DNA sequence: TATGAATGAGTTTTCATTCAT
DNA sequence: AATGAATGAAAACTCATTCAT
């Protein structure tokens, strides 16, 4: 019937959840339709196709992550350690809540099969690395900063994966705890100099 | 009089490559048939179905990893550090050659959609963790050994993922280099005690 | 307070163009909506459905042809040759402008699939033949008049088709030129008798 | 079931008939499947898609026309008039049997919507014109030969269309009769010179 | 063994149409 | 009048699987 049943934003949020659980290729438009209470055809009123819907879900996550995590970056009231802790805490919270990393899960699936989507996700990781690098540059030399940023994010993604595999959140909490400690220590050392 | 064109082992090896590139759900039996020079129907003489073929590929990889990596475990001529370095080297070599981790790629895809396969892969990771833990137990207390094993493997898998995303092997080489250094240092310290 | 954006007549004219280019079955209501600056749903305020819209376009063309071509029929100031030349000129002009014959294009498509539309178009051709026959009857015996009328119209439609296929207007201009010459000659001969 | 039910050639022949009746866009793969006693999916075992099937039907018709009509061209035992009469007879017979011209019907539908198909059909008309031109060149000057060829073929196609519209075969028989007479007369005149 | 043919269930997508606002 | 949302039916196409040869 012709009145609005679900907003576009709601559909995207639902799609995000379904895609996170089932992956890109194994999620059908029917699945998302059913989950959102619409009929298959109605989805095409809001999105040109499955790919566009997937990218909308990615952009939605990216945007939220930006606002939630990267926002601290430009907050001048926070010192380096506070900024990093904010990022670490936000990352931990998000991945725990989602019980996995949509970005990683989808990425591995589409990297050789859906370049448009892969590109979308790549930008997310680039931006994440870039943000962390930027903060770390306040205490490390540029090259070292980027190296640590890459290492840390890789470690987090690896931990999220293991968390999913073993259904064991300690993988995630430990990496984040480790990062927090490392940051504290390194900053202490720098300041001592 | 149809003579054997491709051996079962060859098919598995080819399937492993295709699955690694394209994932489980996006790889069709046609894809594998084409890649192996057979027709679709012929695959069913060797495997009951797609799932069995996938699991054969997983088992094959698992077996190779076992022989290649875990073998060092029981070699009494090697000391702890040598054993660990062997493991680290083998891991690095394998992931570099495959340009990705089939186990991780497939796992994330099937974890909620194909439990039989997921279980198969889970065992691989369990065994890997177990093996590393065992070696580390020669120098660390049991709890700590397992913790480090989990951390290290998570870090490696995260690095493999990033390597794929950014098409940059340094993610992988750096983690392995880091592990080598850590092992050397830790063992030195223990021995000093 | 929705004010009128496009008149019904304008929609029909636009539909006529789109149908001429793309045919009946391959033209969607969306296509026509888009071309006319309306949304799909709005078309249904003016027409019961696609079929009615198609028939409106046909009727519109038919009406124009009637006024433009057949009008000469009852003009008592014109002699037979002038009437025929008027018809021939109008036909040539119309088909050149439209770069094709909507009536023919649509007819062949719907003849076995949409009888209501087919009937509509059939009437157009009947009327056209009838009109030409009527004029020709002023110089030919009735049977012969109809025969020539049918032949001429068939020749024109065949030429329009070839014009579209080869994107070559000479097919059309030559047939019309041939008809003009034939008319002139035949009438001369009759008068000589 | 896995044994062959219909040959590829039979499918093409059936498709040709269905396409001729219903046109390209309004014929679904289901229609053809049903008409040929196969299931929808099975058609894709023989043809990559609808377009390929359509083109196969076109090629089949083209080939038959070539063998049936154009063959006389190179038969040195026939004189010009005999060759032309063969062509005219074959054309008449074919269009009467098919109760329409698939080539014309489909062409008008796809000319702006499926260029690959349009091109296929265009080649058929080009070849037809070329063949007639070649024979006519034996009695007419080259330019005149081609002009008459084009005119004749356009006239035939127009007549076929009218035959379909009015379900009246006399359109077709008369054009062909006219052509036969014209040929006879022209050749007589030339010989008189 | 190998394969070509067939199939049913499912995929993404299109589309004419309806209707509350 | 206009429109955005919704929908059911059907379109083209895919694919894992079966089986006679």
Structure notes:
The structure is a homotetramer of 193-residue chains. With 193 residues, the first copy, chain A, is mostly helical. Helix content of chain A is 76%, strand content 0%. Chain A folds into two domains: 1-57, Homeodomain-like (Arc Repressor Mutant, subunit A); 69-192, Tetracycline Repressor, domain 2. The first copy, chain A, contains nine helices and no strands. In chain A, helix 1 (8-22) packs across helix 2, helix 5 (80-98) packs antiparallel against helix 9 and helix 7 (115-136) crosses helix 8. The radius of gyration of chain A is 19 Å and the shape is elongated. Chains in contact: A-B, C-D. At the A-B interface, helix 6, helix 7, helix 8 and helix 9 of A face helix 6, helix 7, helix 8 and helix 9 of B. Chain A binds a DNA duplex (21 and 21 nucleotides) through residues 1-5, 28-30, 38-42, 44-46, 49-50.
């Amino acid at each position: 019937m012709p009145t609005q049943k679900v907003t576009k934003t709601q559909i995207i949020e639902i799609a995000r959840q379904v895609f996170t659980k089932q992956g890109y290729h194994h999620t059908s438009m029917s699945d998302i339709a059913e989950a959102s209470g619409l009929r298959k055809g109605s989805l095409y009123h809001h999105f040109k196709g499955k790919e566009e819907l997937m990218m909308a879900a990615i952009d939605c996550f990216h945007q939220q992550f930006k606002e939630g995590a990267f926002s601290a970056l430009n907050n001048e009231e926070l010192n380096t350690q506070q900024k990093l802790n904010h990022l670490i805490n936000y990352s931990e919270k998000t991945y725990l809540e989602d019980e996995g990393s949509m970005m990683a899960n989808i990425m591995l699936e589409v990297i050789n099969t859906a370049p448009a989507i892969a590109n979308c996700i790549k930008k997310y990781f680039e931006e994440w690395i870039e943000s962390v690098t930027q903060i770390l540059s306040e205490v490390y030399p540029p090259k070292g900063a980027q190296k640590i940023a890459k290492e840390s994010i890789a470690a987090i993604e690896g931990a999220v994966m293991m968390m999913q595999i073993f259904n064991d959140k300690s993988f995630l909490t430990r990496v984040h705890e480790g990062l927090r400690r490392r940051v504290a220590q390194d900053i202490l050392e720098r300041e001592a100099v």
